[in-house]
Every structure is written in C-alpha cells, then in structure tokens.
Design brief:
By secondary structure, this protein is mainly alpha-helical. It is built from 5 helices and no strands. It is elongated and about 65 Å long.
Length: 121
C-alpha cells in the first residue's frame, strides 16, 4: 500500500488515525460503488443530462456567432473548439485561470472570426 511505502521511506509518520480514516473512506467507496451498480439506469440518465448540458454550454457560442450575422464556420467547428478550450483550461487549476480561458477563447475565435473583424491577439 502507498501509505506503508511512504511510512517506510520516512515521508510520513505512522498514525493509527490515518489507517482509520482510510478504512472509513474505503468503506464509503465500496458502498457508493455498490449503489452505482444497483442503479445503473440512473447513472446513464445522469451521463446523458451532463452531455446535453455541456453541449448546450458550448453551443451558446455558436448562437452568439450567428446572432452577429457571421458565417463561414460550421457549428461543429465552433462547438468543438469551445469544448477543446474548456478541456484545456478546466484541467489546469491555475491561479488566473479565467484570464487563460478568455485569452484562449480570443485566440481561437480569431481563427474563425478573422474575416469579419480585426483580431489583434
């Protein structure tokens, strides 16, 4: 077990409370896993709802694009680009992440808006 390894390497001191917390966490994990196996249909419904929510969030950019009367880029390109930006930014919990997200959106948007506006990134 990883905790034993770190204790032998002297990175952690041996504590009984750590073992107890780990045992409680593993029991809760096992209960949750059993619940999910018993309610697989609910898991599928939650997954579908999550996919629809994320797709709707990324599609909002497409609707704004069309609201400005722009054309030339497909809906799939814009939605996939927003998805890629979200994955890239959400996976890096850095301070100032909002600025990184906005900068990434701006730079990627300039690729498909360049014909319609002056993008200076």
């Amino acid at each position: 077990m990883a905790v034993d390894f770190f204790e032998r390497m002297k990175f952690l001191r041996h504590k009984k409370s750590r073992e107890e917390k780990l045992a409680v966490s593993m029991e809760k994990y096992n209960q949750t896993a059993d619940y999910m196996v018993g309610h697989f249909g609910m898991l599928v419904v939650v997954f579908i709802i999550t996919v629809v929510q994320r797709f709707s969030l990324f599609a909002a950019t497409w609707f704004v694009y069309k609201a400005f009367g722009l054309s030339g880029s497909s809906a799939w390109l814009i939605i996939l680009m927003q998805g890629a930006i979200a994955v890239a930014v959400d996976m890096l919990p850095l301070p100032g992440g909002m600025g990184i997200s906005e900068n990434s959106s701006w730079r990627c948007s300039c690729r498909y808006l360049a014909a319609h506006c002056s993008c200076r990134a």
